[in-house]
Specification:
- The complex is a heterodimer of chains A (344) and B (204).
- With 344 residues, chain A is an alpha/beta fold.
- Chain A has one domain: 3-Layer(aba) Sandwich (Aminopeptidase).
- Chain A is built from nine helices and 13 strands.
- The radius of gyration of chain A is 19 Å and the shape is globular.
- Chain B has a single domain, classed as pyruvate-formate lyase- activating enzyme.
- With 204 residues, chain B is α/β, with parallel strands linked by helices.
- A six-stranded parallel beta sheet of chain B has the order 2-1-3-4-5-6, sandwiched between helices.
- In chain B, 44% of the residues are buried.
- The longest helix of chain B has 27 residues.
- The chains are: A alpha/beta (344), B alpha/beta (204).
- At the A-B interface, helix 5, strand 11, helix 7 and strand 13 of A face helix 2 and helix 3 of B.
Chain lengths: 344, 204
């Protein structure tokens, strides 16, 4: 009997490893169905790259919008903003698709990844723990890149389909491999699944929520595909009224594989990427929990992400003749002042 | 949809949170109006439409100016790579300074080509007697060496200079405009430029 126990345990462990990470998300009334990214690329099913897609369909037809958090799962404000929409928003017109962990494999580990180098260690992810009206809960703080145990060998150089070359470890960076490949690496399959979702569902706008180091030139920036930079300018100007001072940038032709560039160029969707300042991403910082940082508070960063998205949505009808109407989100100050009470 | 972003329907409150918000708006309005009065008293140049709006450096600031001009209901054409031969159809020229390697790359030009283009543009404006506004509206993050090189080239051609407070932290604009006796409008936020344009072009 004992000789069967070890293989059985290994089998169960292998199944656990193969399945995607599950998260504590408490969907509210606005969620009308829950899909998987593997619904758009079946080969992702039962892999660590599969992730939940929360569908929030309004009664009136309108714009279809995709909101992405967790392309880099250590950039936690985007993840927290996405979860808030799933738990609090209701949609009366149009359809909102929310993916809180776009790269779910990256949420399963921490390796101290940074912009310039590969990870130096492999350790379990950490968690932000907090109290909501429904009791204690936690949100994982993962890594920037796909877990190397899920995509084992980095090439010496990663060659994007455009021919642009990146360091090999960037093969595991979801925001370098867009638009992905159906038969590529795990990261490329995730990307391909997102593009299939955008095309299949007729997505009109994508916002990919990110964070950058507090000294980074990207911090507090809205990056726009050139085709939607006018809309971005309108949103940035409106956001000043909320005390949000965002810079406006446009995608570069030279930097390929990024969501704002590739979604905008290769699909009909308007494509944006937002960046808030995350002190955990500053050089030399090791603690990923930035909830209590007094200068760059997580509550404000989440509020900024939420209202960047809502402000962009306000302009969709002007630019696409299709509207999305999102209701019941907490106001800016409520998020800033009592972030964790904004979750179910 | 986002009713809380648009509080025009809220009743006026003079105390508490509403009162503070009202006070904030009043202060902003005063700042915008005072900015308008300051430049009105400083410049005798008449800025007329139609307006040609262009970039110097190809940053996204020029697009912000385009949106602000739309909101101010100006009669304008926005051309990021405007050339000197276009000027004859216009009565004023707005150049938004801000260097962006991405923007220059997307436009397929380098800094030297950009400098050549805007130099020909301001020289032609001077020849035709078309008043020029030089604006820097993207704050301190757009004050790198290339942006400053463009500013040093273009500010002497300005009939009016507009800058955000955060873009003038080192006093570069204040010092230049005082020394050269040029009118300068300093705004706290980029959005306030809309009010400046409305005053400048008699839109309110």
């Amino acid at each position: 009997m004992r000789k069967f126990i070890l293989p059985l345990l290994l089998f169960v462990a292998a199944l656990c490893i193969a399945n995607p990470l599950f998260h504590d998300v408490r969907p509210g009334y606005g969620v009308t169905s829950i899909k998987w990214l593997s619904d758009y690329i079946p080969s992702l099913k039962r892999t660590p790259g599969d992730t939940r897609v929360y569908v929030m369909k309004g009664e009136k037809p309108g714009a279809n919008v995709l909101l992405l958090g967790g392309t880099h799962t250590n950039e936690i404000a985007g993840v927290m903003a996405a979860i808030m929409f799933v738990e609090r928003a209701t949609i009366t017109q149009g359809t909102l698709y929310v993916i809180p962990w776009a790269n779910n494999s990256a949420a399963s580990w921490q390796g101290g990844s940074n912009y310039e180098s590969s990870e130096t260690e492999t350790s379990p992810p950490q968690f932000i723990t907090f109290e909501t009206r429904s009791g204690p809960r936690s949100v994982v703080v993962g890594d920037r890149r796909t877990n190397p145990s899920h995509q084992v060998t980095d090439p010496a150089t990663y060659v994007h389909i455009s021919g642009v070359e990146f360091p090999g470890f960037e093969a595991r960076n979801l925001n370098r491999v867009h638009p992905g490949k159906p038969d590529g690496t795990l990261t490329e399959k995730i990307s391909y699944g997102l593009f299939q979702l955008v095309k299949t569902e007729g997505i009109d706008m994508v916002l990919d929520m990110h964070e950058a180091g507090t000294k980074s030139r990207l911090s507090n920036t809205l990056v726009c595909n050139p085709k939607n930079i006018d809309m971005g300018a309108m949103a940035v100007l409106d956001m000043e009224a909320l005390g949000i001072n965002f810079k406006l940038e446009q995608s570069s032709d030279e930097f390929r594989g990024l969501s704002h560039k590739e979604f905008g160029d290769l699909t009909d969707a308007l494509a944006f990427l937002s960046e808030t300042p995350n002190p955990a991403q500053d050089r030399g910082k090791t603690d990923p929990d930035t909830a209590d940082n007094p200068e760059f508070r997580l509550d404000r960063r989440v509020a900024v992400q939420v209202y960047t998205f809502l402000t962009l949505c306000n302009y969709l009808e002007m630019f696409t003749n299709k509207a999305i109407v999102i209701e019941n989100m907490p106001d800016f100050d409520e998020i800033q002042n009592d972030l964790f009470r904004c979750y179910n | 949809m986002l009713a809380h972003l648009d509080d025009r329907e809220e009743p006026l409150e003079l105390t508490g949170k509403g009162g503070i918000e009202l006070m904030k708006k009043f202060v902003v309005l005063l700042l915008v109006l005072s900015a308008g009065l300051i430049f009105a008293s400083q410049t005798s140049v008449n800025f007329s439409e139609p307006v040609l709006i262009t970039s110097a450096g190809q940053s996204a600031g020029a697009t912000m100016m385009k949106v602000l001009s739309m909101r101010a209901k100006l009669d304008f054409i926005f051309e990021k790579l405007a050339t000197a031969d276009m000027l004859e159809n216009f009565k004023s020229l707005v150049i938004v300074v801000g260097a962006s390697s991405k923007g220059l790359g997307s436009a397929g030009i380098d800094v030297d080509q950009e400098i050549e283009r805007v130099t020909l543009l301001v020289e032609k404006a001077r020849e035709l007697g078309i008043p020029v506004i030089i604006a820097h509206i993207e704050g301190t993050s757009r004050r790198g060496p290339t942006s400053d090189r463009l500013l040093d080239l273009l500010l002497p051609y300005a009939d009016l200079v507009i800058v955000t407070k955060s873009g003038n932290q080192d006093g570069k604009f204040t010092d230049f405009c005082q020394k050269e006796n040029k009118p300068l409008v300093t705004v706290n936020t980029t959005s306030e430029v809309q009010g400046v344009l409305e005053d400048l072009y008699s839109k309110r």
